[in-house]
Amino acid sequence: MADKACRLCRRIVKGNICPACKTTELSKNWKGVLVVLDAESEIAKKAGITAPGRYAITVK
Ligand SMILES: [Zn+2]
């Protein structure tokens, strides 16, 4: 598994920079995947997610 997760927004990123935060603060040590299709959904709001995408549930 080469994917990393952004430490700031928890977005799962391919490559070395988060496209949302423009940060290289990525971690390989993450667990769980939350797929957000609708940023207006209750789940997205509870998770603090504002854009559709794949997110890690926990990032260390
Ligand atoms: Zn990010």
> In the CATH classification, which architecture applies?
Single Sheet
Helix content: 10-25%
How would the global form be characterised? globular
- The run of helices and strands is EEEEHE
User: Any idea of the CATH topology?
Assistant: Rubrerythrin, domain 2
Structural class: mainly beta
**Beta fraction:** 35-45%
Rg from Cα: 11 Å
Bound molecules: zinc ion
Number of helices: 1
Q: Output mean pLDDT.
A: 94
Number of structurally distinct domains: 1
Give me the side-by-side strand order of the main sheet. 2-1-3
- CATH C-level class is Mainly Beta
Report how far the terminal alpha carbons are from each other. Answer: 16 Å
Largest sheet: 3 strands, antiparallel
**Uncertain ranges:** none
What's the short story on this structure?
The chain is 10% helix and 35% strand. With 60 residues, the chain is mainly β. It has a single domain, classed as Rubrerythrin, domain 2, CATH 2.20.28.90.
